[in-house]
Amino acid sequence: MPDSHQEFTLTPVGHVSSTLTDRASAPKQGTEGAPEAWLIFEPVVVPALDGLRPGDRVFVLTWLHLSPRDVLRVHPRDDQSTPLRGVFATRSPDRPNPIGLHPVEILEVAGRRVRVRGLEALDNTPVLDVKPILPGEPGA
Amino acid sequence: MPDSHQEFTLTPVGHVSSTLTDRASAPKQGTEGAPEAWLIFEPVVVPALDGLRPGDRVFVLTWLHLSPRDVLRVHPRDDQSTPLRGVFATRSPDRPNPIGLHPVEILEVAGRRVRVRGLEALDNTPVLDVKPILPGEPGA
């Protein structure tokens, strides 16, 4: 069994530039009216973008920097009339490791800037990773 | 623009118990013959599992602890005849923040142990998060 007290360090590879600035008014999912947004990558990781093309569907992983990490159960979708549920059974941003997972479509790749459709993350949210959605896997 | 030198700290919420012990022989995707595996959660996060049921499809997020983080371009699927490609356009485990994203099916929930189908992560891989795959989103 591994050491349960280990820690790992994340370094953002970029950040979100979006007109969404307020958690209360942001859509809860990208399919619920998220505007177009830009991913602005650090210059040092630009080679990692090689091969991304408009039309590609990818997962963007973010660090939900405004989320409390000590919440283990929530009312799904902030609806107080819904019974409490474990955060691992919800997509609440409040969770021990607040990593956001966002399926988006790439619209444009311009140097270290990538324009996407369907991203509900707030302006300035740190970006951790981008992964293509594979044919044949859930998400294709 | 946010501070590009910020860092974030991840704390594992559990680990993988699997018969897969060797990166070279492990399947590259969970659909490519991954065995059943157990997720063993830390006792403190057990409330976060409330509501997970057999048959649920979830994403498991892991920390790919054996992966180098300074690789920005790879030959997809370790095939040297394929041109180099940016890691953000591949699912290579080698990437700046080596977070693994694994769609799996829950088979059994037993206290702090959850048995899953379709997980290609190696034995002892740290688990960071679990998220349900939502109806209507890619992955449903």
From TrEMBL, chains A, B:
TM helices/strands, residue ranges: none
UniProt xrefs under InterPro entries: TrmO-like_N, UPF0066_cons_site, YaeB-like, YaeB-like_sf, YaeB_N_sf
A Pfam family that the UniProt record links to this protein: TrmO_N
CDD domains assigned to the protein according to its UniProt record, in alphabetical order: UPF0066
Domain of life: Bacteria
Region of interest (Disordered), residue spans: 1-32, 75-96
Domain TsaA-like residues, every copy: 10-140
Alphabetical keyword list: S-adenosyl-L-methionine
Signal sequence bounds: none
Family: Belongs to the tRNA methyltransferase O family.
Protein's UniProt name: tRNA (N6-threonylcarbamoyladenosine(37)-N6)-methyltransferase TrmO
Annotated organism of origin: Actinomadura chokoriensis
Lineage, uppermost ranks: Bacteria, Bacillati, Actinomycetota, Actinomycetes, Streptosporangiales
